[in-house]
Amino acid sequence: MQTSQILVVDDNPEIREILQILLSAEGFSVQQASDGMSALQWVQTQDFDLIILDVMMPGPDGYQTCQRIRASSNAPILFLSAKSQENDKLQGFLNGGDDYLSKPFSSNELIGRVKALLRRYQVYRGKKPASPLLQVRHVSVDPADHTVLVHGQPVALTDTEYALLLLLLRHPGQIFSPAAVYEQVWGEPFYAGANNTVMVHIRNLRKKIEEDPKHPVILKTVWGKGYCCEKLG
């Protein structure tokens, strides 16, 4: 089995060393970067299965670095930051992050988040058995090779966005509450702030697949209940 490649980006050398030790002990291959520019150089030369990204760094901060990484990579990004307000987390998701863990963190929670992100990334890159093509209006998804086409043109989704789209497309017409979406896509128990997490990812996904994200016809909001996908075909 191929070793997962993880990039740790933090301007604090002690934090980088702690993460190096924790992740290496789990069998992961770890590279380090001390700032956003170094991280971008790494991403240009190597494929990573996960990127752990600090927010407050010199030069481009974590949010800016995440945006620039997303231009060339869909690897899951876990923000690891002392900024722990709900708005900080929303900013992380809006800029392309998949998960957000506040400092200080427990080693068990960190490893649990890392493994969950890697598992989703591996599953939704097409490592499941072949499935029928999913088609709704101008959007088609081929689960066999993890491709998403909008009006026949390929669209790059993060693994979280892809997992979210696949969940709703596989159950057309079924309404999923935010709690159900979070627990099935993120694989963790729902908590109060997770409602905003789901909302932001739905918003990001609509920007990529809907003709008019402000008036979605594919990923619909059922007020007071949750989200659903239009019937396929």
Give an overview in words.
- 42% of the residues lie in helices and 19% in strands.
- With 233 residues, it is α/β, with parallel strands linked by helices.
- The protein has 2 domains: 121 residues, Rossmann fold (3-Layer(aba) Sandwich), CATH 3.40.50.2300; 101 residues, Arc Repressor Mutant, subunit A (Orthogonal Bundle).
- A 5-stranded parallel β-sheet has the order 2-1-3-4-5, with helices on both faces. Strands 6-7-8-9 form a 4-stranded antiparallel β-sheet, with helices on one face.
- Helix 2 runs parallel beside helix 3, helix 4 runs parallel beside helix 8 and helix 6 packs across helix 8.
- About 2% of the residues have low confidence.
* Rg from alpha-carbon coordinates: 18 Å
| CATH class wording of the largest domain | Alpha Beta
- Classify the oligomer: single chain
Rounded mean pLDDT is 85
User: What is the percentage of strand-forming residues?
Assistant: 15-25%
Outline: globular
Individual helix count = 8
The number of distinct β-strands equals 11
Catalogue the unreliable spans. 126-130
Number of structurally distinct domains? 2
The CATH topology of the largest domain is given as Rossmann fold
For the biggest β-sheet, the strand order reads 2-1-3-4-5
Mind telling me the CATH superfamily name of the largest domain?
Response regulator
**Fraction of helical residues:** 40-55%
Main beta sheet, described? 5 strands, parallel
Question: Can you write the helix and strand succession as a string?
Answer: EHEHEHEHEHEEEEHHHEE
CATH architecture of the largest domain: 3-Layer(aba) Sandwich
- Quickly give the structural class: alpha/beta
Note the gap between the termini: 38 Å
